[in-house]
């Protein structure tokens, strides 16, 4: 070991507190990078492998009823590789142990057919027998949520007939990695919605669909044009009640998992950058102090023949050693958090195998990024050390040139001497104070963003489930019924109030742009489903014309007062020109709304409805649930309380770990910066503090004098952290706007209060550590003249 190496380790031991603070901040940045980047790669790889091995389709289409011969015509379209017609139907289920009615999506499969499109990964049990019409395979998420195993039975209403189904297997499908029902549902409710695969012969016989299908999936040849194939499929399927074919990008499960992958990629860039920027600041401040304190040592080293390059390498090694220690710790912590995060993802995204396996290049990137941050922080102090001539370095550093400043012009009685010294020191070293304030601002910003995201979600839930959805239950019928059905629903046990609605699939067109969506007809002045925007403001449904969501209006580039072409995608496929009467900035979906009577007139219907919104007496809910399970006309039942609980459970499990970890990291930034600043000040002002002790200042007074500087910086950084946090929240809310959901921009005062509390606790802990160093201050040693 060389002399410089021994000096390196002595300096490291002497600066162990500051070095440890820097290591922790670097570890936070590396851990977030490794966790998010490796999770991004793992999800991307798992998705690609699953899609390829189990043949996830490229195009999907639903029809009312089409003969199987139509599938042959689609197979002849140029670019089509494989076609799979099937029958899909949502039915009511009575699940053992579940009081509420559940919805099951029955999908037909050929028992002996394996390796085709949307092939199943059998987790447990077996495939059904060809002749066994009552045997089904249940999706894993549904079976796990309800404690179902092969051999259990569930009851279903299929085409108006009660049938008992036996579960013989538990499986996964690439079509339902994220298993939700759709139709406005954004979060999985695995207890009340599940996918059941049943023999094609049994399902077609039960639904009178022999020789026909109502759903078709298609895979494409390499380099085939998706848009061209969809256009030809729409022309072929139009006469069979097609709702329009769509590609993978609009398939709801694929869309959710792809959005999650994209967000992980962004998180793996932005969050580590904040931590490593703070780490570079800490390195810079610490090494600037080290070089100033070791001027004479640098002179001696050079006098003994060491070159400038060797001196520079010595200090670079110091910074790199600290950086690599932080990198190593961050890689270990990132690996651990990645495993925890993968377990959470496995609860929501159903892959046959989701292995968190960070690639070697991720760790290499972590080393490269950490080394760059350490060098960026150390480069300026190292250049100063190299530039010092031995003769100049042997002299003590010239005292800084002070001049009268604002604080010196204040009357002596206005502020105490201690506060005057603190403010004067801050005023004479503004750049160091700004650097410290920036780091603390970052920690405040992170806390505000964490709590701000929870605030936005809470407000979103409040607007959607309290203000916009005031019903208790939504009953959807299996086909369009007359208004008399509404009266029958209103007479069900426990129903206090009911309001009808009509749902119509439509294609809206304006100029050359078009969008497929649903047109929802509601009673004008509806009390159970008012039009509430993101700001909580109520909007009345127009008596005539159409109201569309702001997201849909932006996509079509249409404004109120202009006319839309409305093409109905069911029945006689009516086409009308309808005036856009208003827009509403709602939270979910890209929908269109009309007065129910106006919609019936446009459809040339006589008060037809698709279902009803019900307010229910809580004391009679169980009786109502049991009846709804057995009504042949009911296709689905949505329970608001179940949706709310599902929403909360999803948020708590999916965001709790990541946001909680960010809060811990924010505390580390605050503690690291405050502790480092106080330690540097203690080293630089040791003689000054010792002199004050000799002059009669108590230990508590000089501690307050030293930590007061950091307290002022912390308090000054708080409002800027609030502003930066709110700005980041605004950016995140804007970037998270999708057709599926929009989050309101809101940060409650409690979030700012939490930021203040967390930063103050971090500051208090740092102050306690520094005060212990002050208590051990050796006055005699500090006051000795430097050799």
Biggest β-sheet description: 6 strands, mixed, barrel
Rg over C-alpha atoms, rounded to the nearest angstrom: 34 Å
Termini distance?
27 Å
E-strand count? 22
| Shape verdict | elongated
Structural class assignment: alpha+beta
* Poorly predicted parts: none
Q: Kindly estimate the percentage of residues that lie in beta strands according to DSSP.
A: 15-25%
Level of helix content? 40-55%
What strand line-up does the widest sheet have?
A: 3-4-9-6-8-7
Overall pLDDT confidence: 81
Helix count, per DSSP? 22
Main location: membrane
Domain MacB-like periplasmic core: 20-235
Protein name: Putative ABC transport system permease protein
Pfam family, one: MacB_PCD
Structural commentary:
InterPro entries: ABC3_permease_C (IPR003838), Lipoprotein-release_system (IPR051447), MacB_PCD (IPR025857). With 787 residues, this protein is α+β, with helices and mostly antiparallel strands. Among the domains are: 53-255, no CATH class; 464-643, no CATH class. 52% of the residues lie in helices and 20% in strands. The strands form four sheets. The protein has a six-stranded mixed beta barrel with strand order 3-4-9-6-8-7. A six-stranded mixed barrel has the order 13-14-20-17-19-18. The protein has a four-stranded antiparallel beta sheet with strand order 2-10-1-11, covered by helices on one side.
